Model the fold of this input.
Amino acid sequence: MQEQDLATMAHDATKNGPPMGGPPPEEAPVQVAPHEPVHYDCDIVVLGGGGSGLVAAARISETTDKRVVVVEKRRNFGGGAMGAADWRVYGSRWQKEHGIPDNTLPALRQVMDETYWELSPALAYNTFKATGEFFDFLCDTGEGVEELYKEGTYIFDGPDGPKVPAFKKERQGGAYVMKRMIALCEKNGVIMLKNTAVADIDHESGLYTVTAKDPGGETTITAKACILATGSWIRNHELVKKYVPKIADYPMGNGGHTHPSYTGDAVTLAEKLGAYIDYDSFEIRLMGPLGMCPSKTLMSMTAEPSTLWVNKNGKRWINESTQKRRGIFETGNRLAEQPDYQSFYLFDQGMIETCVKAYEDGKRQPWCFPAPPSYSENWQEDVENAFSPKKGAGMPPMPGMGKSIARADTLEELAAELGIHAENLKATVAHYNEMCKAGIDTEYFKDPGEMIPFTKAPYYAVSGGLGTDGAFGGVLVNENIQATAKDGGLIDGLYVPGDFSSGRFLNIRNNKVQITNDLSWAFASGWIAGGSAVEFLDE
Done:
């Protein structure tokens, strides 16, 4: 394959890439004719063609002559990384050339402090180092790659966070990288088996034997090393019910983090290989409340601490500034305990006018995800447009939920429209107004400066749903992404990058406190796993 073809294939990812965290692209039906059993003999077999698996395969095939087979059960390669955006990068050549200070050591100290120094410093260091090495590798795969990136920040770090290379085509960086890794693998002769599910695995006499099946028949692969990168278990209901029971009935939907293929295949495979699966690490990272509506003004109000957060029972359930202080993942865990996993941002016309006036007078809220409040001069028109049928005011914010926004002249009417307990809602607002008058929030301790009473109809509500960033936890790995055995040793030739590896985060009451974000980990752990597998074979 010529370099121009490689660049073209990668560039195609920027045309119609899915939004960050959104549903993966449609998978075209595959028709496979029946075939006789097929066998491949290789050096390294990669099980899973998502972010970590493809990075590992691309590194191996581009830098060595090792024979690689990639097995992917979905009909497309790329996995969840196809819907991801940017990632944290440390110590890359690109950052140095752009005069960006290397903050590797301060960042390492910070994440190790946050994880109480319970995680492996060697794994943390190798991960950080690998993010820069992989980005340099990506830039070296073709002329002009570096020019596709600009100086930016990782989305959860906000505009004042450490500077990283950000893909210029917003929210399509993951798709671009995946297309480029696929192109590299194809150029280098990697055998790419898609629509092929692993059925069994054995490890005897130094060889891994994988049995896989596609709609046409059976394939076996023998290899000297195995990279187990099959990803998440979020669509395995039994595992969800056992390890995160409070969302056992949550309607997952078909999103980038909840694809039906994420059934935890690696659990059975790793158990058979004798790997130590850290079941205590199993968690689902929850996000919320997540409000989505067709109005900049109403979305800005969801970021105002003056609103009330009420559940379907019509009751407040948390301090409304918690998400700003502690993050959207921690409040997501509390939201999962509310009826139907749902919350509502409650405010009235007077509250909107007060917040807009403060903004016009120069008041600015600190950065928060997804954005701090921001109001335009025509905010009244923006609100009215949101309730126009043409603007889709009734679009469901999350799977299994109703209207995204509602407006009514009375609290009873608002409650009826959204299915909220009306009498409780009236009592909640009345009590809150009393606390505003007294100047102290004795329920959830809101700052007195954030307390604005309900004084002027109409009343508004924006639905806030529960989302997820994926399921995590699995085989405990060392700093080389090598699998730990049940007996405490290491398993020769077995490497477990990506979502099914444990050791890079703490599970604190289902709150993942980690050394880096998930896309960084996917690329870094895949990069390390590829290098470690090659070193193992060379030794």
Observations:
- Residues 411 and 426 are 6 Å apart (CA to CA).
- The mean pLDDT is 92.
- The first strand starts at residue 38 and ends at 41.
- The chain is about 30% helix and 20% strand.
